[in-house]
Every structure is written in structure tokens, then in C-alpha cells.
Design brief:
mainly alpha; Arc Repressor Mutant, subunit A; 70% helix; 0% strand
């Protein structure tokens, strides 16, 4: 699988943030990166490509 376009990367980031917002409202701070990314339909490693820290 190759690199994603800049537009797709922005869409992925938006999806991560929206999903994180929803999960944090529903579950509080007990949300793991793995659970977040699964709910967003993305890979665990993709989180670290979007957010450096």
C-alpha cells in the first residue's frame, strides 16, 4: 500500500478526531489508541503518522 494523498490524510485526521470526540464523550478517558483507531476504521500505526506526540 502506497502513501495516501494529502487530501486523504486530512480526511483520516478529521475521522480520528471526530471518532475520539465521540468515544471520549461515551466512555471517558478510558479509550485506548487501538480502540479509537478500530472505531475509526484505520490502523493503529496510522495514529502516530497523524499525531507526533
Amino acid at each position: 500500500m502506497g502513501r495516501v494523498s494529502q487530501a486523504q490524510a486530512q480526511e483520516n485526521r478529521r475521522r480520528i478526531v471526530e471518532t475520539a470526540s465521540r468515544l471520549l464523550r461515551e466512555q471517558g478517558t478510558h479509550v485506548s489508541v487501538a480502540d479509537l483507531m478500530k472505531a475509526a476504521g484505520l490502523t493503529h500505526g496510522g495514529f502516530y503518522k497523524q499525531f507526533a506526540s
